[in-house]
Write a structure and sequence with these properties.
Layout: H1 3-14, E1 20-21, E2 24-32, E3 35-44, E4 49-57, H2 64-75, E5 85-88, E6 95-102, H3 103-109, H4 111-132
Length: about 150
């Protein structure tokens, strides 16, 4: 399956229009009612791989150590990120959720199902980061993974 074929399948399954430019596409998708996540997908036809990314928010200036501890713990065995990883974008300092997948494997299981799970996980982490601004900065313990985060 090529990247453009994959995106075409995604469009049909989700009922959205996605513009592809070269080997990438960006669009907003909301699996949860009234909550959209900006999704960026890069595809490699040569390797048959996809990189799916979502911006999940800007870490607040106060209490960053506590938040970063929580984000790092979520990456442990990818348990609280549904197989994705959380990182900081070195270009803008914002947190992002990202995952690599095999295009053919996703095509076999259903691109919309995989993207919906990714978007739900991104939404849960985005809400946690947004809510963190209200958390007491002096608590050095980690936060709990968000309820909407999927476990593998």
């Amino acid at each position: 399956m090529t990247f453009r074929e994959y995106v075409g399948t995604l469009e049909r399954e989700l009922g959205v229009e996605i513009q592809v430019e070269d080997d990438a596409c960006a669009f907003s998708y909301g699996a949860k009612k009234n909550f959209k996540i900006d999704i960026l997908i890069h595809g490699s036809n040569e390797h048959g791989k996809l990189l799916t990314c979502a911006d999940i928010g800007e870490p607040p200036p106060v209490g960053r150590e506590r938040l970063f501890k929580t984000l790092l713990e979520a990456n442990d065995f990818l348990g609280d990120t549904a197989g994705s990883t959380i990182s900081l974008n070195p270009g803008n300092g914002r947190a992002r959720l990202q995952r690599f997948d095999d295009m053919d494997a996703l095509a076999a299981t259903g691109p919309a199902k995989a993207l919906t799970a990714f978007a739900n996980t991104a939404a849960a982490w985005k809400m946690l980061i947004a809510d963190f601004r209200d958390a007491p900065p002096d608590d050095s313990g980690s936060l709990s993974a968000p309820d909407g985060a999927l476990r593998v």
